[in-house]
């Protein structure tokens, strides 16, 4: 069901508000399944999975805070269209985490742009909302996301090194038949971002 609101929120803020809403929507729909996947993997990835699950809840809360603000200030008719649910195949955990990192950076930038424009147009209530619930602690979130991405990269590097060693110890015909687990596609209910936001997943397969 598409979020339905009425009218224009603040003159000059419609586009950046939409961007912030879309990014929060995509974030909480992405982080939850990725987090659960990492929790099932356990080991060194378990902490990252818990972090993403908690961050998904925060992004969902932020999305509904923004949507409530929009609904309370709109007059007229406007429909906020969200992308349809389409599962995508990713090259592996690393490609998903890199996409999540880029998404979080775009989300932070969108909120900061919204805050700047709201400040320039004298929307003090919106500024207070963004500063209190969105901007505070965002730098820490980015640092944690980067740390967990580093963990995944380190594990992928060790896995590839181990596979190269095993390959060198096997007879040539057996080694050629060996499948690399890290290259197996990872299918998650992740949603394609709009071209306007310039967020593209690492998967090079053709769009649906």
Automatic annotation (TrEMBL):
It is found in: Autolysosome. Its main location: other. Coiled coil: none annotated. Transmembrane segments: none annotated. Residues 84-153 form the Ferritin/DPS domain. Pfam families: Ferritin. It comes from the Eukaryota. Stores iron in a soluble, non-toxic, readily available form. Important for iron homeostasis. Iron is taken up in the ferrous form and deposited as ferric hydroxides after oxidation. Also plays a role in delivery of iron to cells. Mediates iron uptake in capsule cells of the developing kidney. Delivery to lysosomes by the cargo receptor NCOA4 for autophagic degradation and release or iron. Belongs to the ferritin family. Oligomer of 24 subunits. There are two types of subunits: L (light) chain and H (heavy) chain. The major chain can be light or heavy, depending on the species and tissue type. The functional molecule forms a roughly spherical shell with a diameter of 12 nm and contains a central cavity into which the insoluble mineral iron core is deposited. Interacts with NCOA4. PANTHER family: FERRITIN (PTHR11431), FERRITIN LIGHT CHAIN (PTHR11431:SF47). This is Ferritin light chain. It comes from Erinaceus europaeus (Western European hedgehog). The gene is LOC132536903.
């Amino acid at each position: 069901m598409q979020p339905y609101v009425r009218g224009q929120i603040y003159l000059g803020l419609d586009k950046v508000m939409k961007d912030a809403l879309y990014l929060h929507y995509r974030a909480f729909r992405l982080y939850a399944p990725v987090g659960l996947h990492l929790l099932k993997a356990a080991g060194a990835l378990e902490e990252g999975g818990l972090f993403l699950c908690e961050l998904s809840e925060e992004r969902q809360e932020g999305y509904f805070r923004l949507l409530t603000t929009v609904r309370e200030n709109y007059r007229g008719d406007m429909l906020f269209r969200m992308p349809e649910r389409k599962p995508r195949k990713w090259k592996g955990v690393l490609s998903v985490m890199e996409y999540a990192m880029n998404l979080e950076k775009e989300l932070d930038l969108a909120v900061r742009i919204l805050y700047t424009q709201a400040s320039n147009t004298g929307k003090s209530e919106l500024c207070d909302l963004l500063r209190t619930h969105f901007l505070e602690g965002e730098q820490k979130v980015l640092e944690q996301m980067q740390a967990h991405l580093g963990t995944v990269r380190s594990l992928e590097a060790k896995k590839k090194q181990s596979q190269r060693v095993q390959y060198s110890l096997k007879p040539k015909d057996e080694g050629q038949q060996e499948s690399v687990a890290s290259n197996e596609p990872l299918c998650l209910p992740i949603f394609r971002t709009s071209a306007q936001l310039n967020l593209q997943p690492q998967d090079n397969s053709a769009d649906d």
